[in-house]
Amino acid sequence: GWFIVINLCNPLTMSVQYYMSSVSSSMALKKHQQKAEMILQSHNIPFEAIDISLIDGAKEKMRELSGNPTAVPPQFFNGDTYCGDFTALEEANEESAAAVRTFLKL
Questions:
Q1: pLDDT tens per residue, range 5-14
Q2: Counting CB atoms within 10 angstroms of each CB, which of 43, 73, 80, 93 has the fewest?
């Protein structure tokens, strides 16, 4: 397994959390995660990747904070504030860079 924390700036200012899973049989999930990371990186948005397959309690926390007991990664948060899922991120990205920042509550 692997765990990546991408920190492009001071960790005290880093607030975007991206819940993902390094272990999945779903090709769609893997593609969504890859595209989500590309979107965040293309907008120079620092984020913390939280791997629900490696971190005890992370899946439960993701589902609790999102208010969705069946939520699957990728899911996006700013601190403990739920921003949305991959579809919402993708829609914001198609709209504008400002929409991505608004979606992530930056």
A1: 555 544 445 5
A2: 80
Q: Supply 38's token pair.
A: 């590309």
Task: Give the tokens for residue 6.
Answer: 């991408």
CB-based contacts of 26, cutoff 8 Å, min separation 6: none
Start-to-end CA distance of the chain, whole Å, equals 31
The set of residues, in sequence order, having a beta carbon less than 8 Å from that of 67 and lying 6+ positions away, is 82
The per-residue b/e assignment along 48-76, b for 16 or more CB within 10 angstroms, e otherwise, is: bbbbbeeeeebbebbbebbeeeebbbbbb
* C-beta of residue 73 within 8 angstroms of C-beta of residue 89: no
Q: Using CA atoms, how far apart are residues 16 and 19, in angstroms rounded to an integer?
A: 10
Phi, psi angles (nearest 5°) of residue 4: -120, 130
